[in-house]
Design a protein that fits this description.
Blueprint lengths: L4 E6 L19 H14 L6 E5 L8 H18 L3 E4 L6 H7 L12 E5 L2 E5 L14 H11 L7 E4 L20 H8 L4 E6 L6 E5 L2 E5 L6 E3 L5 E5 L3 E8 L2 E8 L6 E6 L6
Parallel strand pairs: 1-2, 2-3, 5-6, 6-7, 7-9
Antiparallel strand pairs: 1-12, 4-5, 8-9, 10-11, 11-14, 12-13
Helix pairs in contact: 2-3, 4-5
């Protein structure tokens, strides 16, 4: 029996801690919701080996917003004694991220990297595609990813990316999710990848794609009910996930926070024919 690795998966926190943007006029305090997740982890006596935040860190915010988030992350790393890893989503902005979060005012690059946690390899990709809603993994990243995965890792690998991969069951969201899924899959298949973790769509989904487990976690900030493909309903909701990996077997548990579930905003969807 191998040792068990526990990861807290958080996504779509949509913070604006300094600028305090009221997203869609919903009046939702995303910072309080984000902090409450850490409190819940502690109250439930969960002892993660790391935290992962899979994009949409800041909702189209500033360098100061990212700087504020970085201070929170440093505090939580010290409090829990484990690393907090992040990747970028479509609502993030690279230049303010590099300046405020990473302390480099001269960079505007894609943000992708690998990290090791208790022998498990985590690979974080950057699927942000300009200012577009949908995601794309660049050729540069795909080349880098292929080189990384050519070196097998005995404990396996998890891929973390903001946009979910495309599968037939998510066809009604195809305009919004990863546009070059086939290219990414061609790199992942036959390697030691155990699962792909993502967010972006603000609802929970788990599916098998070409033999590969995909886990999409609902958002920390607010939910989106996409059951009506022409009208998405934004709800007062908050969730996070617990990922456990043992002997290269992955289990996903979604935990929901107390919230009203009230509809706060309705968004007509017109891109379905694209």
């Amino acid at each position: 029996m191998g040792h068990k690795i526990t990861i807290v998966h958080i996504s779509d926190i949509h913070l604006n801690p300094v600028f305090k943007k009221d997203i869609f006029g919903m009046g939702i305090d995303t910072l309080s919701k984000f902090l409450a997740l850490f409190d819940d982890v502690k109250e439930k006596n969960i002892h993660p080996d790391c935290f992962v935040i899979s994009g949409d860190l800041i909702h189209e915010g500033t360098e100061d917003d990212y700087g504020y988030l970085h201070k929170i992350v440093q505090q939580k790393q010290q409090e829990f004694g484990v690393p907090v890893f992040v990747c970028l989503g479509n609502h993030d902005t690279r230049e303010p991220f590099w300046a405020g979060y990473k302390g480099d005012k001269n960079k505007n690059d894609e943000y992708y990297y690998s990290a090791m946690v208790q022998g498990l390899r985590l690979i974080f990709l950057d699927s942000k595609n300009g200012t577009d809603e949908e995601g794309v993994i660049s050729e540069k990243q795909l080349d880098w990813l292929n080189q990384e995965l050519m070196q097998p890792n005995p404990e396996g690998t998890l891929i973390i990316v903001h946009h979910p991969l495309f599968c037939k069951n998510l066809d009604y969201m195809k305009y919004s999710i990863l546009q070059n899924t086939d290219q990414l899959l061609s790199v992942l298949q036959g390697k030691d990848v155990l699962a792909v973790l993502s967010g972006h769509i603000h609802f929970n989904a788990v599916f098998n794609l070409s033999g590969l487990m995909n886990s999409v976690i609902a958002a920390a900030s607010y939910g989106i009910d996409c059951s009506n493909v022409h009208l998405h309903k934004f709800t007062d909701d908050s969730s996070y996930g617990i990922i456990t990996v043992e002997d290269q077997s992955v289990m996903v548990q979604q935990l929901s926070m107390p919230s009203t579930k009230n509809v706060k905003y309705e968004l007509p969807i017109k891109q379905l024919e694209n």
